[in-house]
Structures are given as structure tokens and as C-alpha cells.
Specification:
Six copies of one chain form a homohexamer. By secondary structure, chain A is of the alpha/beta class. Chain A folds into two domains: about 80 residues, Leucine Dehydrogenase, chain A, domain 1 (Rossmann fold, 3-Layer(aba) Sandwich); about 150 residues, Rossmann fold (3-Layer(aba) Sandwich). In chain A, about 45% of the residues lie in helices and about 10% in strands. Chain A contains eleven helices and seven strands. Chain A has a seven-stranded mixed sheet, sandwiched between helices. In chain A, helix 3 packs across helix 4. Chain A is globular. The model of chain A has no long low-confidence stretch (mean pLDDT about 95). Chains B and F meet through loops of B and loops of F.
Chain lengths: ~325, ~325, ~325, ~325, ~325, ~325
């Protein structure tokens, strides 16, 4: 994505579901205090992952801030908006997937004014993707959740579906749609398939049955390496997760920048900048893919690795 | 206003009118040196108030900067533009009042294309408010200064009035207007009354005689608590000072941000951002007021207090 | 230009052409280490000059960054884009010259829709200036390089010329143009002459033969002081180098700002901001020149010196 | 005392006897965190006073140390020995009083090999003073505690008395001594009287009945200003508290120095250095007193004030 | 030992014998640079261990010092004396062992004016121990090196033996002594046996054959746990390694303190302070051992652990 | 001297005799502020030289201290004792010369119990040297000042002479002594000649007339290089200034150390440490001189240079 950001993981070996909120807070503050020399807006910037959330980030930020004597919002990302988080962060991943779908459709010259889309998963990523593609004139013909899938070849009314899900807690039973199982959903004919649920959904067992032209990976690792090869041989294009679902980390980066400037953007500004960065990254990957006849996944990796190598070469090794 | 900013006051017990400029400078530098551990762009950022001005801020900024070894414009706000102050700061309070008037007129559905306005006070706040509302198509029917008031039910030509005041030093005698006393001015029939002079102008003595529909407080505390109740009972809406005259502190915040980025905005950019922030704040207050049937003053307080409470709850108390 | 930036020079007494790359790197890192207390985004920010380049800046940035423990892109400018340099820096000087030409043509009311331009030098500055003026509808009638000049009174097709030069390594021989020597080029009749090659090109020997109306200095010091007087007496306006070729330092300033915000601008954003700053500076100089009957060079100096004096007066001398 | 140390007080408005140990710890850590910018081995160094103790100092030291990331023993004095406190601190005040008695006896030429001493108070100060004077060959003829006094004109066996008090909890009833009330104790004939209990013991009511030659003030303010004058007129010498009981603050200073060097002294070394500093201070005061015919209290003040004035004059006022 | 010092280990996974000196230096500097945030006179202070030496420490100290901008001798210990190392460091471990032998002999009331000693190992530790005990009037009857042992029941002339070893490279063949093997050496009758060679010398195989009264462990771990029990049952006292060979770390601590004061002690001063600290520690351990009927090893551990526990209890757990 | 101290000079180009005290103070504070990044107890530590004095050092110390926020005595040496200067600094150079004379007399085996000394100059250096040698049993037979010299072959009563000079302002006319001119003084027969006045006193004009056995240079450069050779050929030993008059810089170093420990030494402690360091340095130089047949001046240089070279070799060159 061209963000001036590295990446690392750290954690505590604990069963968080056994902690009271008070224990969780004290544990978080103690951990923050132990690693405080490694943290800072210019050093390492934690963000939430499994079993941590906005509240955890608020505690880390508060502990760090008290320690240095003034509020430092940029020491973490994924904070609540009310203490320096970014607008648009919650929707960012789904929004990025939608931008990617649109770039891919353009790049590969999908015909017709309303390309058809199937979205697996209707959580934070899938529902936002579906909503935005619907707004953009795409025809979302199938979606699923953990309980099952629905299908309407004329396109689902996504805003109404979202209201329905919010009330009923599932997609099946939605007026004017036909119920399917999840397996069948993936094999529906469509222009674009967006697997936005779990990893490992597209495997050597079902890859040759897929009838989509393009897959845009909203989840982490939805396609196995074997399936990747099968799809490539079939001519199905796979826009890889490291590109397609990078909207979240991009807005984390925006949150960091806003905190350092102490100037907070409107949601529109966040979304425009996200589109600019996602769009540029998609275009670079797809162009390199086409030009060098690389799968998009390989093109994305080549770009990423060559940027690191270039920076390393320029900076040298010191001392 | 949603600014990432706290507030505090500090001062020196001295009679500043007895100081020579040299004494004033040395006193300011000594004071800065004594509290220097508490100052900084991330800690406490002085701004001018009574008996201090741009020059005072320049001295504080210089003393702090020499102490840390490089120029730090963001350690104060209210600096001269030539050493890092913000464009648009002088007009900011009046401009904010004008934005507020426009939002209130829209919100409360004042009829007609040229709502009528009376402005008490024609200094830095009142004259800017009048000028901007005039430009926006409002009909400014009455204004006053310390020497008296004028009235023209067809609307005053504000640009010409400003030129007249600049030459004559007062508003009365302006061509095509009728002289009034200040008391009468407040009781003129109008859509919007902007008290932009001193505190305590609208009291239990005159509140029930007011003929405006909306009051937008440009001064600090122009309405007494008793008058507030009377007006409320009469159905006159009061947009409170903590909202309406926050344009000044908002541009101080912009000055701080610009100094930290070392990127200085044009006057247009300052004004656009001010309108965005003032507009959002007005809308939030007026909507809450309408929805919860709270006076706007109470709605503003509720929003402000709940933001602090929310942040406090999220951050927790540590240690 | 109104940039919050001072200026100084430092260097190593060495013959750089005798250094191996390894020696050059070690020397650069040692030098950086020796002066490291004086460097920093808030202190002194090196940029490349003679015999130093992007690679040198990368080494300085890396040495400084390792020393403080995290990457600090803003400690230098003129870095490669891949490690935090700014888009648009390479073209910045030529682009600034072109903006200046356009402002001068407007200010002095040059008639006709396609003012004619002669550009001396077709390197990084001259070719960019020519390209942008051509795009803006100017008629570039003559250009030169170290091997000679060409002329076409109907205007040269600059994009094609650039392609030609890129292939042939020189301007002469370009289809539809007539060859000239460099001396004759300067004396061509035109609206605007842009000397963008070496210093000392317009002297008391040729000044009175010039047939242009306006000179915009793209190079450093192309006009000698004696020539300046002759041109002034003839009525030829000289837009001075300290104004006209300040595009490069302005984008260096942008690079610094982007690095401190860790938010990197697109090339369009860089160019828009450059135009805004160059335009404002040109207008101020030309207006003062006209109003106070000063040569533009003197007007530029008066503005620059008075800004320093004003800041000095406001900040005072301490201790 | 010539220590490179200032003095100030700070505290929390709370009823400490109502706090649980946990509340006390959290309150102490919060307070430390709030004033942490003002603390440090080079800034302000808390020491215990009323309702705070070694444990309180340990908490402050720990809170500060965690905050800066490494153990900083010198940020407080009065710590437990096991985490960086000084040997000899507990006995320091009594030991200093004893040194002072010996210097005064020498200075004023008290005859006989075993000068007689009366000590009011047998707590931390009085018992140590009595023990050390006994060891030094003085004859301690009377001591008291809150329950009453005892007297033996041939001298009390102080080591045995200390053992007796440790068992019985009071001085009266000690074998071979005669019981007195506290009032009578002060009026016993003796060479040196050491009031080491409460303030305000020697007043205009009993001053003229005192039969001692020298008073060495172990307590804070045992002599009222009126009594001071009466005693002076009678020829009784009063060695003032600010000199005589400065042993405690002196060993606090030693604790600070040891912590900064991270080199801890043996109890003998502490006592030798204490004697050196107390002895020099006593001699200076008594010599000035004799030479300038000032009461010792005035001589001590003159020396103290003139040291501050001298330092202030040399350093100047800046800025 | 009561030193204000913790302990930790760090290293590089490399085969140092394969490094050129230049590689070794660059590797050491890189390692220092990578962990530099964790180093410092107040944080972590490296000292040499296996495959590192004075030169390594000099490189670490230089790298750190260049990084912070001034020479910081206290960031490492074990430096060469010429750049801030301590006099007496080389002999410190052997000297500490000798002090310990003397304290143990006194404590356990060994009869006769010249207690007999056997020293296993004649390297840096053993030869210094033997030399100092010889000077103190002990009769050193046997010593060994890797090649074998020698014995003289009347006592060896240690200064002459040292000269002999320095010339011949081994102890056997020394005039007036009888050759033995190492195994026999340990079983010689003597008052004190000092195993100062390798670990694991006294095991369940030979423990019951030992004829000494006291063992003072100069090496690390010379006695196995099983042997420890056998010796205890036999009534042989074992002064444990964590006490007896702590002279080296104690002088490292002195080196740190000297560097922070920038005041360097003479060798005599180092030795006196070492004796004071070793003596106090020996006495505490032996007294506790006798009083509580604990083996000295257990007594030493109890003292060490209880000090940590006491400090931990007093400081509390924060945050 | 083996001090952990470098050396450098800095200054202001000004005629200090033209400055008022206020100008001098402001100039000193401004200078301090300009170079403040280079100063500090761990960086560069100014000390007084020509036209600066204790007061100047107090101003520098105060300016620096205010800047960092707490008193930092160790940032300068040569401060007044009342704000952290060292006892014994005034006499330090003369005292060091006297120690040197005694070491040289011992080393070269000067016979007789009262070696005879001639001292040129009776200022701060010469009079202290004379006083201390007199106390040590030397026979001071001649001294001089700017007005002339005196001679008494049986030895002058130095304490009485000091009292005489303090009253009369010159040495001549002292009871029981014979007047000489300065030239004759140098040529008196004696064991030791101490030139402690100006440089360039012993030249090729008088070197061969000198009748002393040893010259100990109290002044800077009293012997010209030509004279040095002549004296060497005659067998006169010259103890060089860089050794003999290093007492002053040594006590400056003590002042620095005391300030960093915040523990101030008594005058006796200062003098003992001075003797220890001067004595060791003298012995090393004289021993090397004798052993390697180098003039003492060359031996001193060899020791100094080899220490720097050794440290440089050990630390290496980085980066």
C-alpha cells in the first residue's frame, strides 16, 4: 500500500475470557508499562487484534500518556473516536474491498453496466462491500452468513437486506430471494466473487466448479495455494487478500497521522484518501500482473518486496 | 467544538499599565522561564487575554524557543502572522457568530429570503458578523456602539457603514439611518438579535420586551440566567455563547496545528475549516435541543459534558 | 517565499571524484555523526548540492535515524521517493519558473493569446519550463543547449522536441526548426526570455541587444549587475532568480512537511501547493515593484529583508 | 549546615488514619504521578514528615522509578535501608544534638571532667543524645518522658535505663533514681539542659527558674521568644534548634548523595561525616556569636541568610 | 553481597573463533547498536564473559558513547584501565576468596597460627588466593594446575612458586615439593581446601575421602549437590561459590561507581573496599549459618532471597 | 596527570576592559546561551582564563542551570566556593609545584636535610610554593617579585616575609635579607630553582650561568627550547611546566567531581588527593626519564601521548 509502516506482533499468554474487566485493565496497563520503552508514535504503534478492542487501546494510550505526561493519541490505533480514533475505521476494510472490485472490473473489462457479484459473509466486511457495490450500480445476486445463503439473479436490495438482517439476525428468508447453502453460493455464476468470511473456503475440492470471472479476497486466506493454481489455469483472476483487504490497516495509518497532526478528518476525507491509496495500489498490481503475465498475488508480492529491497539498498547497513 | 484541547488560566499579579515596554518584556520572559516545564506544544499552550497581546505571545514563544534550542511556533497561539500566527484569527469570532446565525435561521425555519438582524456592538466581533451576514443576504437593520445605535428597517449598507465608522469613530449619523439609544436597539423587532458587546445586557428588566425570534450570543454572558428563563418562556431561542463565540478558540487551535505541521494555511482554508467545525457543532446542538426539548444552552452543555465523561470512562483512572 | 526555513551550508574538504562508493558512504556517515547534535527536523536539515545526491541524503538519513532509534525522514530533503522523498521535486524548479512566467505575463499585460518565449538551456529546468509553457498555450520559439540553439517563429512542438532530445542528445536538427548559435538565441525577438542555463549570460556586452519584454531568471545569476541597469533603462523587466527559481527549495520544504506528518502528497497536490506559493510570491513582488517603482529584484529583496526584520523586532533579543 | 539543598513542603488534604493501606498506597502513587514533573534527584526530593514514613517513601520511589524506567533511589530520602536508605538515619538527630552539646561545652569552657546534663524527652532524639553523652563521659542526672521524670545527682546509668524503658515503657521507677515531675526536671541544676520533647517548654513562666548554663534545643521550638530574652539576660546560652537538631536533614542529604553515587556508606562513615559537618557548623555559629556578641540563634541566622545572599548576588537574576 | 545490581545475560549466536578482528568489532558494534535502548549506566551494564574481553567492552563503550555524544565509561565494566577500568579487577576474585578463607578460619576457630591450605588450580583465582594467604601467614601445603599437583607439608614458598610457574608454565618440579596427581591433592589433610579450577571436582566419588575441615569454593560449582550432603554429614563446612567468588562482580560494581563519579580509586582503596564488603557478607552468612544451623550455602541463599523479597514487598507491584 | 578530561578553548572577540559589569554579564549569558548545546557536565566544562574570573563562571553556571531547570554546579569549574567551588583551588598550583620539588629532590638524591631553594615570583604560585617548602624544612634562600629580589643564604623566614609583603607590597627591604636584581636571583647557587613568574626567563643568554641542580617550572614556559638544551648539557634537570604546574587543573577536576557527587570535600581532603595525583605523576615521569635517559620534559610528553594513543587504539574509530 506504500504506507510508511512496518509490522510486528506482541501479546500476553493468558485466557482473556477468564479475566474480569478490572483484571483485564490492570493486565493491559502492566503490559504497556513493561514494553513502554518500545512504544511511541515514532517507534511501535499497537492496534487491536483477537481478544483486544477499542477499550484495550484506550487503556494502552492512557497508560503511555500518563507516563510521558501528556496525551499521545498516536501511540495506538483502533481507539474509540471520542479519544482520537478515526472516522471511517469500522467500514474501512469493506470499503477497500469494494474499491478493489471496481478497479478489477474496469481493468479486466467486464461487460455490461451492472456486473453481478456474490459475497460470502455478511459481517463487518461483507455487508459494507455489498452495500457500496450496490450503491455503485453492481447487481449483488448472492450473499451468505453462518446460517446459510440467499440468491436472487435479478439482484438483492442490499439496504433492505441490511435492515432485515439487523432485525432477524440472518440473511435467509429475505423477501424475494431463494435460500441456498454456502457451498452452492460459491459456485453461483457471477462476474465477481468476494469471499469475505473465513480462510480456506476455496480449495482443490471446489475451485474447478467456480463460475465467477474474478475473485476479490475480502477475508484473510480464503483461497488455498492449490486452488490458486487451479483457478489460474481456468482463467479466473484472484485479487489477493494482502491487496484487497488492506483498507483497515490503511485507516489505522490515517488514524496515526491524524493524531500526530492533532487534526481530525471528516469521514468523507478519510474515504477519499482511502480510495486514492487503494485505487493506486490496485492499479499498480493489476498493471504489473497484465504486463508481466504474473498472477495478481505474485505481482503484489513483487511490488512489496521490491520496495523493501530498494529502501534497504538506499539506506545501507549501519553500523 | 470537539477540539483536542483543554483550558486553564495563569497570570502575574501586576499593574501592566505601569510597566515600560522593557519591563513588560523582562517580566514576560521571567514568567515564561519560571513555568517553562509546564509549557510546550504537547503540554500547555498560552494564548493572549486581557492586557496581553500578539507581542506578549512573541516574547513567550521566543523565550521558550531559545530555551529548547530551536523555534517552536506552537508553544503559543495568538502570535503575529509574521512569526507563525494564523491568517483569519482576527476575524474568527465574528465569522463564527455569523455561521451560527445562518445555521440557526435554517434550523428554525425563519421565513423570507432576507432575515432581519440587529447587532449590538460594532467592534471586532459585531462588525465582522454584520459584514458577513450582509454578504450572505441578511438584512442588518440595527447596530450599535458605545456611543449609541442606528436603525434602518430596510437594512443598513454594512460595507459603507464600516467605512463610515473607520472615518468617524462611531455609527450614529450614518446616512439613511435613524439614531436610537442602545436600550431601544435591543427591543427592535427582528428575526435575529446578536448581542456582541458586553455581558449582562439582557436581564429580567428587558427580556420580556425583546421582539426577536432568535438570540445568538456573540459576547460572553450577554444574557443573565433570569432573562434566559423569561426568554425561554416567551419562545425566544438563545444560541449560547459557549457555542456561538467559539470561533476564536477554534482558530487558535488551527494556529497550533499549523505550527506543528509547519504548513500554513491560506485565509480561505482557515475559513472553510472554521465553517465546517462551527457548522457541525451548531447542528449537533440545535438538533439535540429540538429532539430532547432542551434549551440550546443546556444541549450544548450536555454535549460538552458527555464528551468529557465518555473520554474519562474510556481512559480510566491511572494510577 | 514565506517558508519557515533558514539557510546555511556545510561540507567536507575532499575530492569526491577520488572516493570509492564505500569511502563516500563511510565519510558521509562519519560527517553526519560528527555534526549530529546540530541536525534534526527541528534544527538543521541538509539537502543535496554539488557532488552530493539522493544517495548521500539516504546515508545521512539512515545514520541519523539509527542514532535516534527510529526512522526520521525529515532530517534531510532531497531523498529518493522510495524512502520518503517528495513527488514532483525533480521538476519543481522548472515548474516554478513557468508559474512565474505566467504571472509576469499577466501582470505586465502582454497582449495576444500565445505570448512568445525563448528558453536558454534545455536541461532539468529549461525543458520543464518549456513543456509547461507550451501546455499553457505559449509559443516557445527558441531553445538551446550546450551544443547550440534552434528557432521557429511559429513555435516549436515541445513534446516532440523532448522526445527528439532524449534520442539525439541535442536540440539542433529538430524538424522544422532553424539552427542558431546561443548568442543569437538571446537576441531573438520575443515576449519572454528565460535564461535557464549558466550564470553570467546577459552582460553589458549583449544587454542592449535583447529584444524581449520580460526576462525570467531560471538559472542562478544569469544577469550581471551592469546588465541589470541597462535592461532597466531599456524598459526590460527582470524577474529575479531568488524569486523565479525558488521552486526547488519550496518542494524541499514540502518534503520536510510531508515527512513530519508522515503523510505523503500526490504529485498533483505538490504541484498545486507549489503554484499557490509561487503565485502568491510573484504577485507580491510584482505588485510592490509596480507600486513602489522598484525593479522586481529590489522589490523581492525588500520583501525578504523586511520579513526578517519584522520577525526579529517581534521576537526581540534574548538573552 | 552548608548543604546544597533547598526546602519546601507539599501534601494531600486527607485524613490518613481513615485510609486502608491499599488506599494509602494508591493515593501516594497518584500524588507522585501528578507531581512527577517536579520530582527528581536534581529537582525536588521528598522526605517523610507527619503521617508519612519509610513505606510512603518506598512507594514514591517505586512510582517514580517505574515511570522513568530504572530504579532511582535518590528521588526520595527516608527510604528503608534495604532499598537504598542510609545507615544511621534513625539516630541522626539525637547524635547531632550530642555533638552540639560537646562543642558548646568546650566552647564555653564548662569546668570539670563530667559535665552534668538534663534531657527532657526520652524518645528517638532524647535517648540517643543521653546514650552518646553518657558514653562520652557526661553525667546525665535527669531525664523525662510523657509520664514523668527521674533524677540522680550522681548520674544515671543510661544503657541500663534504655533497657529498663524498653521493658517498662517509662523512665520512672528506675532503680537508684528519684521521681520528679517534668516541671521540676527543667529547673534542676545542671551544666546543660537538652529539651528534646515538644515545643514551647521554656516560657516566660519558668525561664528565670532554670539553673542550667547552656540549653541545646533538641526539639523544634522548645524556647519561646520571650523566654529567649529572659535567658539571655540571665546569661544562659541557648544553642538553637535550627543548628542543634539538623542531624536528621544532614543524613537525608547523605542518603541522597549515596544514592546518586550508588555507593553506600557504613554506619561509621555516616557518623564521622555527620560529626564533621555538625562540628563545623557549631563552631562557626559559636565563634560568630562570641566574636560579634550575638545570641547563637542570631548568629546561626546571620550565617544562613548571608550564605543565601552571597549565592544570589553571585549568580544574579536571570532572565 | 548487598550490591545495588541485578543480573542478566545476552549474546550473539556466532562462532567467535571464526571471526577476523574486524568482523568481531563490526559485529560487536552492530549488536550494541541494536540493543542500545536497553543499555546505559542506569539500565543494563554489560561485562565480559566467555569469548569476550576488555577489547570487546571498549568497543561497546565506544559505540554507546558515540551514540549519546560523550564518553560514558559506566555503560560497561571490565574495560581496560586506560579507558576507565578499575585497578584491582584482575585479582579481585582470588582476593575475595582469600578474604573468605580468613573469615571462615576465624569463625570456625581453626587452631594454630598457620592454618594449612590446599589450592586446586593455579590460574587467575588460585594463584592470587595462594599468594595472599601465604602473605597472611597461612601454610599453603598443596597446589595444582592442569598438568598435576605438588605438595609440601611444611608449606610452599608461594612467591617463588609464582616465579617458577611464570617461567616453566606448570607447578610440578618445583624445588622442595613432591609431585601428586590432582585426585590425591583434594584428599590431602589440611584445614582449608580451595577448589579454584573447574566445576564438578568434589562428587559423591571422593567427598567422603576429603580430609579438610573447610572448603571455600573459588570455582563455580566445584561441589555437586550429592557431595554437599556427604560433606555436611561428615562435618566439613562448605563456603559456597556465590559468596566466596563474588570478588569479581564486586569490583565490577566498583568500576561502575568510579565511572559515574569520574573519580578513580587507587588499587589500595579498591582492595580495602572489597575486603569490607566481602568481610561483611562472609560474617553475615557464617553467623546465620551457625545461629540457624543451616549449611552456609543455604544461609547465603536465605539472605539473598530475603533481601529481594523485602525490597519487593516495600516497593509493591506497580502498575 | 591521568585526569579523565580533554581540553579546548573558546572566547568572545571583545575588549573586556571596555565593558560595564552589566554588559559583561549580558555578554556572558548570551555567549553561554549560544553554545549551550555544547556545554554540560558530560560535554564541555568551561573554566576561567585571562579576563574571566569566578564571577564569570557563576554567570555561566546560572545561565546553564536556569536553562536546564535545576542547579548544575559541574558545568563550570573555578566557581566561588559559596556556589559549589572547591576548597583549595586558589593554592592548588603552588601546592602542586611544592609537591613536585619534593619528589624531584628525593628522586635525584639531593644531599642534606634542608635543600636550598630560589623562587622567582611571589604571587599566587611562588608564595604558596615558598611557604610549603619552608614548612617542609627546605631553606628558601632567595625570592623575587616585579620590583626586585632578596637573598639570605641562611634561609628566609617565609611566614614573616608573607606578612611583610602583605603590608609593604614588595619583598625588598625584608629584615635580614639582601637586595638583588631579578637577573642575579636566577643565577644564585641553590639546589632547586623555581621560576614562578613569567615565561621566557631562562634563555640562551643566562642558561649557562645558572647554578641550580634542578629547575621546577612553576610558570608557563619559563625556559626557552634553546635554554633547555644548554641546561641538559650542563646536567641541570628541568621538571617541565606541563607536569609541575598542573595542580590548578587537577583541583578543577576535583571541583567537577565534587559537583557531580554533590559531596564537597574539606580542604585537607582536597590537598591529600592533590598530593596523591601529583606525586604519582611526578614519580612516573622521573622514573621514565631516568630509565629511558630522556629529559623529564620528553618523558612527560611520551607518557601523555602514549595514553591518548592507547585509548584511541582500544576504542577504535567509529563510525
Amino acid at each position: 500500500m506504500g504506507l510508511p509502516y512496518g509490522g510486528a506482533k506482541g501479546g500476553i499468554r493468558v485466557e482473556p475470557w477468564n479475566l474480569t474487566p478490572g483484571e483485564n485493565e490492570r493486565l493491559t496497563r502492566r503490559y504497556t508499562s513493561e514494553i513502554i520503552n518500545l512504544l511511541g508514535p515514532d517507534k511501535d504503534i499497537p492496534a487491536p487484534d483477537m481478544y483486544t478492542n477499542e477499550q484495550t487501546m484506550a487503556w494502552i494510550m492512557d497508560t503511555y500518556s500518563i507516563n510521558v505526561g501528556h496525551t499521545v493519541p498516536s501511540v495506538v490505533t483502533g481507539k474509540p473516536v471520542s479519544i482520537g480514533g478515526s472516522f471511517g475505521r469500522t467500514e474501512a476494510t469493506g470499503r477497500g474491498v469494494a474499491y478493489c472490485v471496481r478497479r478489477a472490473v474496469n481493468h479486466y473489462g467486464i461487460k455490461g453496466d451492472a456486473p453481478s457479484v456474490v459475497v460470502q459473509g455478511f459481517g463487518n466486511v461483507g455487508s459494507v462491500t455489498a452495500k457500496l457495490l450496490h450503491q455503485a450500480g453492481f447487481k449483488v445476486v448472492g450473499v451468505s452468513d453462518v446460517y446459510g445463503a440467499i440468491y436472487n439473479p435479478k439482484g438483492l436490495d442490499i439496504p433492505r437486506l441490511i435492515a432485515y438482517v439487523s432485525e432477524m439476525g440472518k440473511v435467509q428468508g429475505f423477501n424475494g430471494s431463494q435460500d441456498l447453502d454456502n457451498k452452492a453460493l460459491l459456485e453461483l455464476p457471477c462476474d465477481v466473487l468476494v469471499p469475505a468470511a473465513l480462510g480456506g473456503q476455496i480449495t482443490n475440492l471446489n475451485a474447478d466448479k467456480l463460475q465467477c470471472k474474478i475473485i476479490v479476497e475480502g477475508a484473510n486466506g480464503p483461497t488455498t495455494p492449490e486452488a490458486d493454481v487451479i483457478l489460474h489455469d481456468k482463467g479466473v483472476i484472484v485479487v489477493p487478500d494482502i491487496l484487497a483487504n488492506a483498507g483497515g490497516v490503511t485507516v489505522s495509518y490515517f488514524e496515526w497521522v491524524q493524531g500526530m497532526m492533532h487534526l481530525f478528518w471528516t469521514e468523507d476525507e478519510v474515504n477519499q484518501r482511502l480510495e486514492q491509496i487503494m485505487g493506486r495500489a490496485c492499479d499498480q498490481v493489476l498493471e504489473l500482473s497484465t504486463k508481466s503475465k504474473l498472477r495478481p498475488r505474485m505481482a503484489a508480492l513483487r511490488i512489496g518486496v521490491s520496495r523493501i529491497a530498494e529502501a534497504k539498498r538506499l539506506r545501507g547497513l549501519y553500523p
